[in-house]
């Protein structure tokens, strides 16, 4: 039985891997203190709560 491969409008796994790779590239040369500050500065100011 052959199955057709469907294209997804949004691939969550692919997106997660792209974001993880981007963050890894940005912090690769930072010290531990710089990494901590990097993540502290990226915390959103407001939280979006589900309805």
Structure report:
This protein has 51 residues and is mainly alpha-helical. 51% of the residues lie in helices and 0% in strands. The chain is built from 2 helices and no strands. It is flat and about 55 Å long. The chain starts with 11 loop residues before the first helix and ends in a 10-residue tail after the last helix.
Residue ranges: pLDDT <50 for 5 or more in a row?
A: none
Mean pLDDT: 88
Helix proportion of residues, in percent?
A: 40-55%
Number of strand segments = 0
Radius of gyration: 17 Å
Q: What sequence of helices (H) and strands (E) makes up the elements?
A: HH
Please, how many helices? 2
- Sketch the major β-sheet: none
What percent strand?
under 5%
Distance between the termini: 42 Å
Structural class: mainly alpha
Net shape: flat
Question: What's the layout of helices and strands?
Answer:
Layout: H1 12-27, H2 32-41
Name some characteristics of this structure:
single chain; 2 helices; mainly alpha
Give a short summary of the structure.
By secondary structure, this protein is mostly helical.
């Amino acid at each position: 039985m052959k199955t057709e491969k469907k294209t997804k409008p949004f691939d969550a796994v692919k997106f997660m891997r792209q974001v993880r790779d981007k963050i890894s590239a940005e912090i690769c040369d930072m010290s531990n203190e710089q990494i901590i500050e990097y993540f502290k500065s990226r915390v959103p100011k407001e939280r979006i709560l589900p309805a």
